[in-house]
Amino acid sequence: MRKSLKHFVNAAAAVALCATLGLTGATGTAAADAPGIPSVGHDWASAGPYTPKVSIGLVHTLYYPRQLGARGEKHPVVIWGNGTGVLPGAYTSLLRHYASHGFIVVAANTPASNFAITMRSGIDLIADKAASPSSVFYGKVDLEHIGAVGHSQGGSAAINAAIDDRVDTAVAIQPGPLNDVDLIDEPVLYLAGQADAIVWPAIVRAMYEDADHVPAEYLELRGATHFGTAITGGDMRGPSTA
Predict the structure, then answer these.
(1) Which residue in 32, 47, 64, 196 has its CB near the most CB atoms, within 10 A?
(2) CA nearest 122: which of 112, 135, 108?
(3) What are the helix (H) ranges across the chain?
(4) Is the Cα dihedral 155, 159, 162, 164 positive or negative?
(5) Would you call 120 exposed, middle or buried from its count of C-beta atoms within 10 A (0-12, 13-18, 19+)?
(6) Terminus-to-terminus CA distance in the chain, angstroms?
(7) pLDDT value at position 132?
(8) For residue 214, which of 155, 145, 167, 144 has the smallest C-alpha distance?
(9) Distances from the Cα of 187 to the Cαs of 79, 81, 135, 231, in angstroms?
(10) Distance CA 54, CA 17 (A)
(11) How far is CA 190 from CA 9, 49, 164, in A?
(12) Which residue positions in the chain have pLDDT lower than 50?
Protein backbone atom coordinates (compact mmCIF):
# COMPACT_ATOMS: atom_id res chain seq x y z
CA MET A 1 0.00 0.00 0.00
CA ARG A 2 1.26 3.47 -0.86
CA LYS A 3 2.12 5.80 1.99
CA SER A 4 1.91 9.57 1.79
CA LEU A 5 4.73 11.82 2.97
CA LYS A 6 4.22 14.64 5.43
CA HIS A 7 7.10 17.04 6.17
CA PHE A 8 9.68 14.82 4.47
CA VAL A 9 10.52 12.72 1.43
CA ASN A 10 11.78 9.21 2.01
CA ALA A 11 14.97 7.97 0.40
CA ALA A 12 13.18 5.44 -1.78
CA ALA A 13 11.02 8.13 -3.37
CA ALA A 14 14.01 10.35 -4.08
CA VAL A 15 15.97 7.47 -5.59
CA ALA A 16 12.98 6.49 -7.74
CA LEU A 17 12.59 10.02 -9.10
CA CYS A 18 16.33 10.34 -9.73
CA ALA A 19 16.33 7.04 -11.60
CA THR A 20 13.37 8.19 -13.66
CA LEU A 21 15.28 11.25 -14.83
CA GLY A 22 18.54 9.39 -15.28
CA LEU A 23 20.46 11.07 -12.47
CA THR A 24 23.16 9.13 -10.65
CA GLY A 25 23.58 8.89 -6.91
CA ALA A 26 26.92 7.14 -6.93
CA THR A 27 29.81 8.49 -4.91
CA GLY A 28 33.52 7.79 -4.81
CA THR A 29 36.52 8.10 -7.11
CA ALA A 30 35.15 5.87 -9.85
CA ALA A 31 31.98 7.93 -10.10
CA ALA A 32 33.95 11.16 -10.06
CA ASP A 33 36.07 10.00 -13.00
CA ALA A 34 33.19 8.55 -15.05
CA PRO A 35 30.97 10.50 -17.45
CA GLY A 36 27.69 11.54 -15.88
CA ILE A 37 26.10 14.11 -13.61
CA PRO A 38 28.37 14.53 -10.55
CA SER A 39 26.81 13.17 -7.39
CA VAL A 40 25.64 15.48 -4.60
CA GLY A 41 24.68 12.61 -2.32
CA HIS A 42 21.34 13.70 -0.85
CA ASP A 43 22.17 17.41 -0.65
CA TRP A 44 19.58 18.48 -3.22
CA ALA A 45 18.67 21.71 -1.44
CA SER A 46 22.15 23.21 -1.80
CA ALA A 47 23.52 24.56 -5.06
CA GLY A 48 24.72 21.85 -7.41
CA PRO A 49 28.12 21.42 -9.11
CA TYR A 50 27.27 23.42 -12.26
CA THR A 51 27.24 27.16 -12.87
CA PRO A 52 23.80 28.10 -14.27
CA LYS A 53 23.34 30.14 -17.42
CA VAL A 54 20.14 31.82 -18.67
CA SER A 55 18.99 32.45 -22.23
CA ILE A 56 15.73 34.39 -22.67
CA GLY A 57 13.82 33.70 -25.87
CA LEU A 58 10.51 34.81 -27.26
CA VAL A 59 8.54 31.71 -26.31
CA HIS A 60 10.81 29.95 -23.82
CA THR A 61 13.54 30.83 -21.34
CA LEU A 62 16.37 28.32 -20.99
CA TYR A 63 18.24 27.68 -17.75
CA TYR A 64 21.14 25.28 -18.20
CA PRO A 65 24.64 24.40 -16.98
CA ARG A 66 27.29 26.70 -18.37
CA GLN A 67 29.61 23.68 -18.55
CA LEU A 68 27.30 21.58 -20.76
CA GLY A 69 28.72 18.11 -21.33
CA ALA A 70 32.06 19.03 -19.79
CA ARG A 71 32.58 15.45 -18.57
CA GLY A 72 30.99 13.74 -21.55
CA GLU A 73 27.58 13.73 -19.84
CA LYS A 74 24.21 14.40 -21.40
CA HIS A 75 21.78 16.53 -19.43
CA PRO A 76 18.18 15.56 -18.62
CA VAL A 77 15.42 18.07 -19.38
CA VAL A 78 12.85 19.82 -17.22
CA ILE A 79 9.93 21.60 -18.87
CA TRP A 80 8.59 24.27 -16.51
CA GLY A 81 5.16 25.88 -16.04
CA ASN A 82 4.59 29.20 -14.21
CA GLY A 83 1.87 30.17 -11.79
CA THR A 84 -0.97 32.41 -12.91
CA GLY A 85 0.07 35.82 -14.18
CA VAL A 86 3.83 35.42 -13.93
CA LEU A 87 6.74 34.53 -16.22
CA PRO A 88 9.84 32.39 -15.55
CA GLY A 89 11.74 35.35 -14.11
CA ALA A 90 9.53 35.11 -11.03
CA TYR A 91 11.05 31.69 -10.36
CA THR A 92 14.57 32.42 -11.55
CA SER A 93 16.21 31.40 -8.26
CA LEU A 94 14.53 27.99 -8.32
CA LEU A 95 15.14 27.39 -12.03
CA ARG A 96 18.80 28.38 -11.74
CA HIS A 97 19.00 25.90 -8.87
CA TYR A 98 17.74 23.10 -11.10
CA ALA A 99 20.31 24.08 -13.74
CA SER A 100 23.07 23.94 -11.12
CA HIS A 101 22.18 20.27 -10.60
CA GLY A 102 22.67 19.48 -14.26
CA PHE A 103 19.17 19.94 -15.66
CA ILE A 104 18.36 21.83 -18.83
CA VAL A 105 15.22 23.77 -17.89
CA VAL A 106 12.95 24.86 -20.73
CA ALA A 107 10.57 27.32 -19.09
CA ALA A 108 7.41 28.40 -20.90
CA ASN A 109 7.13 32.19 -21.26
CA THR A 110 3.41 32.21 -20.52
CA PRO A 111 1.35 33.40 -17.54
CA ALA A 112 -1.40 30.92 -18.49
CA SER A 113 0.32 27.54 -18.64
CA ASN A 114 -2.44 25.22 -17.46
CA PHE A 115 -2.99 23.24 -20.66
CA ALA A 116 0.77 22.78 -21.11
CA ILE A 117 0.81 23.66 -24.80
CA THR A 118 3.89 25.90 -24.52
CA MET A 119 5.51 23.55 -22.04
CA ARG A 120 5.23 20.62 -24.44
CA SER A 121 6.51 22.68 -27.36
CA GLY A 122 9.61 23.25 -25.26
CA ILE A 123 10.52 19.61 -25.88
CA ASP A 124 10.49 20.28 -29.62
CA LEU A 125 12.65 23.36 -29.10
CA ILE A 126 15.35 21.60 -27.13
CA ALA A 127 15.24 18.57 -29.46
CA ASP A 128 15.91 20.86 -32.43
CA LYS A 129 18.80 22.50 -30.61
CA ALA A 130 20.23 19.12 -29.63
CA ALA A 131 20.25 18.11 -33.29
CA SER A 132 21.86 21.30 -34.61
CA PRO A 133 25.67 21.25 -34.93
CA SER A 134 25.71 25.05 -34.51
CA SER A 135 24.00 24.90 -31.10
CA VAL A 136 25.73 24.74 -27.71
CA PHE A 137 23.27 21.95 -26.90
CA TYR A 138 24.38 19.75 -29.80
CA GLY A 139 24.91 16.19 -28.59
CA LYS A 140 24.56 17.21 -24.93
CA VAL A 141 20.84 16.72 -24.24
CA ASP A 142 19.35 13.57 -22.74
CA LEU A 143 15.97 13.49 -24.48
CA GLU A 144 15.24 10.08 -23.00
CA HIS A 145 14.77 11.65 -19.56
CA ILE A 146 12.29 14.54 -19.41
CA GLY A 147 10.43 15.81 -16.35
CA ALA A 148 7.50 18.23 -16.17
CA VAL A 149 7.58 20.61 -13.20
CA GLY A 150 5.56 23.69 -12.27
CA HIS A 151 3.96 25.74 -9.51
CA SER A 152 0.28 26.56 -8.93
CA GLN A 153 -1.35 26.77 -12.38
CA GLY A 154 1.99 25.49 -13.65
CA GLY A 155 1.78 22.57 -11.22
CA SER A 156 -1.47 21.59 -12.86
CA ALA A 157 0.24 22.09 -16.21
CA ALA A 158 3.01 19.70 -15.18
CA ILE A 159 0.39 16.97 -14.79
CA ASN A 160 -1.21 17.89 -18.12
CA ALA A 161 2.21 17.89 -19.80
CA ALA A 162 2.78 14.34 -18.60
CA ILE A 163 0.11 13.19 -21.04
CA ASP A 164 2.89 13.57 -23.62
CA ASP A 165 4.64 10.23 -24.04
CA ARG A 166 8.01 11.98 -24.07
CA VAL A 167 7.58 13.05 -20.42
CA ASP A 168 8.86 10.55 -17.83
CA THR A 169 7.79 12.09 -14.54
CA ALA A 170 5.96 15.10 -13.07
CA VAL A 171 6.51 17.29 -10.01
CA ALA A 172 3.39 19.28 -9.16
CA ILE A 173 4.17 22.09 -6.70
CA GLN A 174 0.95 23.32 -5.05
CA PRO A 175 -0.96 22.48 -8.26
CA GLY A 176 -4.26 23.97 -9.35
CA PRO A 177 -7.19 21.62 -10.01
CA LEU A 178 -7.63 21.79 -13.80
CA ASN A 179 -6.07 18.47 -14.71
CA ASP A 180 -6.96 14.80 -14.89
CA VAL A 181 -4.40 12.49 -13.33
CA ASP A 182 -6.26 9.50 -14.79
CA LEU A 183 -4.84 10.44 -18.20
CA ILE A 184 -1.19 9.93 -17.24
CA ASP A 185 0.92 6.90 -16.42
CA GLU A 186 4.10 8.58 -15.13
CA PRO A 187 5.34 8.87 -11.53
CA VAL A 188 4.17 12.06 -9.79
CA LEU A 189 5.42 13.95 -6.75
CA TYR A 190 2.75 16.21 -5.22
CA LEU A 191 3.95 19.08 -3.01
CA ALA A 192 1.48 20.94 -0.79
CA GLY A 193 1.80 23.77 1.75
CA GLN A 194 0.11 23.34 5.11
CA ALA A 195 -0.80 27.06 5.29
CA ASP A 196 -1.62 27.45 1.59
CA ALA A 197 -4.88 29.43 1.41
CA ILE A 198 -4.95 29.46 -2.42
CA VAL A 199 -4.45 25.78 -3.23
CA TRP A 200 -5.55 24.02 -0.07
CA PRO A 201 -3.61 20.89 0.90
CA ALA A 202 -6.84 18.91 0.69
CA ILE A 203 -7.01 19.69 -3.04
CA VAL A 204 -3.49 18.39 -3.62
CA ARG A 205 -4.11 15.39 -1.40
CA ALA A 206 -7.20 14.52 -3.45
CA MET A 207 -5.09 14.50 -6.63
CA TYR A 208 -2.62 12.20 -4.94
CA GLU A 209 -5.38 9.86 -3.82
CA ASP A 210 -6.76 9.82 -7.36
CA ALA A 211 -3.34 8.84 -8.71
CA ASP A 212 -3.59 5.28 -7.38
CA HIS A 213 -2.72 3.84 -10.79
CA VAL A 214 0.79 5.35 -10.92
CA PRO A 215 3.75 5.61 -8.51
CA ALA A 216 3.01 8.78 -6.52
CA GLU A 217 4.17 10.53 -3.37
CA TYR A 218 2.67 13.38 -1.36
CA LEU A 219 4.56 15.91 0.72
CA GLU A 220 2.90 18.57 2.87
CA LEU A 221 5.31 21.17 4.20
CA ARG A 222 4.56 22.44 7.67
CA GLY A 223 3.68 26.15 7.79
CA ALA A 224 4.24 26.71 4.06
CA THR A 225 2.12 29.31 2.25
CA HIS A 226 1.39 29.41 -1.47
CA PHE A 227 4.07 31.97 -2.28
CA GLY A 228 6.56 31.42 0.52
CA THR A 229 7.90 28.21 -0.97
CA ALA A 230 7.47 28.71 -4.67
CA ILE A 231 9.51 31.65 -5.92
CA THR A 232 12.81 30.33 -4.57
CA GLY A 233 11.58 26.82 -3.89
CA GLY A 234 12.01 27.39 -0.16
CA ASP A 235 12.07 24.11 1.74
CA MET A 236 10.46 22.44 -1.28
CA ARG A 237 13.55 23.11 -3.35
CA GLY A 238 15.34 19.99 -2.17
CA PRO A 239 12.47 17.53 -2.66
CA SER A 240 11.50 18.96 -6.05
CA THR A 241 15.11 18.76 -7.24
CA ALA A 242 15.44 15.16 -6.02
Answers:
(1) 64
(2) 108
(3) 11-20, 29-33, 92-100, 117-130, 153-161, 201-210, 237-241
(4) negative
(5) buried
(6) 22
(7) 98
(8) 167
(9) 15, 18, 31, 24
(10) 25
(11) 11, 26, 19
(12) 1-19, 23-33
